[in-house]
Design goal:
Shape: globular
CATH architecture of the largest domain: Alpha-Beta Barrel
Bound molecules: (2R,3S,4R,5S)-2-(hydroxymethyl)piperidine-3,4,5-triol
CATH class of the largest domain: Alpha Beta
Number of helices: 17
Strand content: 15-25%
Largest sheet: 9 strands, parallel
Low-confidence stretches: 1-29, 434-456, 478-490
Strand order of the largest sheet: 12-14-4-5-6-9-10-11-13
CATH superfamily of the largest domain: Glycosidases
Distance between the termini: 71 Å
CATH topology of the largest domain: TIM Barrel
Number of domains: 2
Structural class: alpha/beta
Number of strands: 25
Length: 575
């Protein structure tokens, strides 16, 4: 047999194995399974071998059904998402104990592929917003086997107990079945990540006060929890109250929930190691108060170490950010942007000016962002009569994604390399978003630092890059620059800017409703400078393709970004 025919035989054999045995395909592609890589405290989600930025949207809770998907995909197309977050319902997946129905999951996979979207699947299992509402009926009807939390008053709370062994076993079985199915059915890696449970924890009680739970509470705190919370000096075999005082109830519940979910995730990951995360119903980042003001059990900022210790199979802890005040929103991003935690925002406000916070997330190295509830099942005409269409409500997110989408691989890579900084308008958004499609109002003057010289207006923020500073303005300019270059007057705080350093004196600059400038800094501070070139064009796969060079009015007043998606590569020089 010649070498050539041997090779041919091998190819035929491998092809036959792949066609006949779908699980073999997953084996063959193991090295290409989406995974998160950490370098110098920065993170990237690798998809098909390169950093990938999730520009996502989460559907409404009851939109993961085949009958509703026709109202999902057109919204996703309008938004220019690359990834759809969509629930998998335990009650649908395992209608009878041990009988699994993957038909809905398969429909999701098929339709996502047709629409060239990736998926993040949300496992609505034991917990959904702190309750057991997505458990199958056979579990709900057997509350002794699958108990809820007992409150301090002895009454049942609408929340599953994290200490219930049968519930844990059932969840592990179902989640493992899901992961096994994905491993076999998704060798294309349509699914990028898995959210394990949804806003796990408990509202209405700080912990389980059942007899069994109380016995554990009165027993010694596990050593890994003492170490995680830096209580190694606690007396030997200290119980929860002795070790943690006022925080004991809360930490005990967090331990129970994180240990439970850690085991579910580990079982699924042993079968198919997709990245997995847990989302938090956020306590107020600036004014948290005490339970029961917030849901207890999930990965809030004060209990990160317990989650990291008890659930190592969870790759990241993620904030669901619904904070409406900018300072609170930004603080939430800061809390979850840590060297031991990739930043990913799986849920956030999905309409109006809040879309600018995508840029705040990117400036903190986020691997993805996904506003909640953006499909066509939802009525945005609120307050009634406001006439807001879904397209108007989603418009700002769509604009973000239209701008960032074509270069999402580059943005992910530049973030992984620590090259990106961003700025958003930090004024608070109005309570009810205003459609940005409204024609701009007449230009209005705002007070400035130097009313005679708009070039010297005080910037809203200065981004620092070694020998260059990049001042950013989010307010309208004082003086008209002609219709082509005047930034649309923001009807609400819309400004967002992103600057990435490409070389010593070269930057990628983009944004919406803002103005960006440059100034020599560091050892070059005070030197005269100018643009060597300000090229407008497209950035893709590390290559910038210019379409024109901006100059004159388009650079003399700073680099102006309006509602038209614009990407610039500027090269600077000092004299
Ligand atoms: C947060 C939850 O995680 C979502 O599933 C959804 O219930 C939103 N809150 C509110 O609509």
């Amino acid at each position: 047999m010649t070498q050539h025919s041997l090779l041919l035989r091998a190819v035929v054999l491998i092809t036959a194995v792949l066609v006949l045995d779908p699980s073999a395909r997953a084996e063959v592609n193991d090295s290409t399974i989406p995974h998160i890589v950490q370098k110098d405290g920065r993170y990237a989600l690798f998809v098909d071998g390169a950093p990938y930025l999730i520009l996502g949207a989460q559907v409404n809770n009851s939109s993961g059904w085949p009958s509703v998907l026709p109202k999902v995909w057109p919204a996703m197309d309008f938004l220019h998402v690359n990834t759809v977050e969509i629930p998998v319902y335990w009650e649908q997946l395992e209608p009878e104990q041990g009988r699994f129905d993957f038909s809905v999951v398969d429909t999701l996979l098929d339709q996502a592929r047709q629409h060239k979207d990736h998926l993040v699947l949300l496992w609505f299992g034991t917990w959904k917003n702190g309750s057991n509402h997505y458990m199958p009926q056979w579990m709900k009807l057997d509350p002794h086997r699958y108990p809820n939390v007992t409150g301090a008053d002895g009454k049942e709370v609408d929340s599953p107990s994290p200490l219930a062994k049968e519930t844990l076993a059932a969840d592990i079985t179902a989640f493992s079945a899901l992961m096994r199915h994905l491993k076999e059915a998704d060798f294309q890696h349509t699914v990028l990540m898995i959210q394990v449970e949804n806003e796990s924890g408990t509202w209405g009680a700080v912990r389980d006060y059942s007899t069994a739970a109380q016995a554990l509470f009165d027993g010694p705190v596990p050593t890994e929890v003492l170490a995680a919370m830096q209580k190694t000096h606690a007396p030997e075999r200290a119980n929860w109250q002795e070790a943690f005082g006022d925080d004991a109830d809360e930490y005990f519940h967090v331990w129970g929930v994180s240990k439970f979910i850690g085991q579910v995730a580990a079982a699924g990951k042993a079968i198919y190691p997709l990245p997995m995360y847990v989302n938090a119903s956020l306590r107020d980042p600036l004014n948290p108060g005490h339970p029961p003001k917030y849901e207890v059990g999930g990965p809030n900022d004060n209990v990160f170490p317990i989650w990291k210790a008890e659930a190592p199979a969870i790759d990241l802890l993620a904030p669901d950010i619904y904070q409406r005040e900018s300072a609170h929103y930004l603080k939430a991003l800061d809390y979850y942007h840590r060297s031991d935690n990739p930043l990913f925002i799986p849920e956030t406000i999905g309409q109006g000016a809040y879309a600018r916070f995508l840029f705040a997330a990117l400036g903190r190295g986020a691997i993805g962002y996904s506003p909640f509830g953006l499909d066509y099942t939802r009525n945005f005409d609120y307050p009634p009569g406001s006439g807001m269409t879904p397209e108007q409500a989603f418009g700002p997110v769509a604009l973000d994604y239209a701008l960032i989408g074509p270069m999402m691989r580059d943005i992910a890579r530049l973030n992984f390399e620590g090259k990106i900084q961003a700025s958003v308008d930090e004024r608070n958004s109005p309570d009810f978003p205003v459609a940005i499609a409204t024609p701009p109002r007449p230009h209005k003057t705002e007070p400035t630092a130097d009313p005679e010289n708009p070039r010297l207006e005080t910037p809203d923020e200065i981004l620092h890059f070694g020998n260059w500073d990049a001042p950013v303005w989010h307010r309208p300019m004082r003086r008209g620059l002609g219709p082509a270059t005047r930034p649309a007057v923001p009807l609400q705080p819309n400004g967002r800017a992103l600057v990435a350093q490409l070389g010593d004196n070269q930057f990628l600059v983009t944004g919406l409703y803002c103005r960006v400038g440059f100034l020599p800094a560091g050892s070059a501070a005070g030197k005269p400078w100018q643009y060597l070139s300000a090229e407008e064009g497209q950035y893709k796969n590390g290559v910038f393709t210019p379409s024109r060079i901006l100059n004159g009015d388009q650079t003399d007043w700073g680099l102006i970004f309006t509602s038209t998606p614009t990407v610039l590569r500027v090269t600077l020089y000092t004299r």
